[in-house]
């Protein structure tokens, strides 16, 4: 998807941190004052936001709509709690959940790819406990937010997971709009009581 910028576009997030010399406002981030961002948060203009190292970060509804209105597919990696705010008549997301494989496959594929994460600003391999935490977190996400997921991809062999993701995205792009809208509106468990 990153190689097809004519069709796909990520949302440019907002932040209150200072712009670094190599960054471009509106391309890397929308750099705004803390007051401006806090007002936007109070007015529910962000589908998600948070604070990291004293700076606010967030994805605005207007940024998402801007990508959609440009005719491109908006690519967003939201926190799961933001999913309930994304399901609106204006946005109509197609949610693909990427789940970890079994512990053994997860460990083998991450070792094979020399996958690392940062601890105290140093790259470290994943420990068995961290890999198990990924699996447990994934299970919790499915229980709490699975009704928002349109498709699930198991991230086992990475090359296959990428092929599966591209295949799903291509299919979604070819489905008639009416089907996608109908599927979205009537998907999930209803809590309504009918008499």
TrEMBL record:
SMART domains: GuKc. Residues 1-170 form the Guanylate kinase-like domain. PROSITE patterns: GUANYLATE_KINASE_1, GUANYLATE_KINASE_2. This is Guanylate kinase-like domain-containing protein. It comes from Octopus vulgaris.
